[in-house]
Hints:
By secondary structure, the chain is mainly α. Among the domains are: 41-95; 126-160. It has helices at 20-40, 44-92, 96-100, 125-159.
Amino acid sequence: MDSQSYQPYPDDDGQSSQSILGQLSQFGQNASNNIQKSFSDMSTQGWLRLIMVVCTYLLIRPHIIKYSTKHAVKKLEEQDVKDKKFAEDQVAKMSPNDLRGLGAVEEEDVDADEGADGSKANWGSKARVRQRKTLRKILEAEEQRRYEEESDEDIRDLLE
């Protein structure tokens, strides 16, 4: 190589001198030139190949879409059958006591104190459950009282 070797992007700072916009412009020009050249230099055999590929694609595409749609519908139906069978099996596993409510499982702890900050007293799990049940009963009683007040007001309004 000669002493003045070609350095495409040197800059005083060592950064590229072309901006991203300039690079994108260059890529676009290259793609445009390549596409133009491929169509202008194409032989008769090349044109025939291109036409055959495009026509084959246009003829086969609807069949491929139809097949893939049928296949997807079949898979969905199979999944629905499996889901229904699983649901029936789950219902069949219930005991008569579960249906009567005698063997009912207690509600899961939805108000769990997983992020407790430690400043409160550490209660046992039974105490927390008792506290939650008490709070629920109080809330239900308050809700019932409000409902009765509203119904009393409605009756008064109707009597007037």
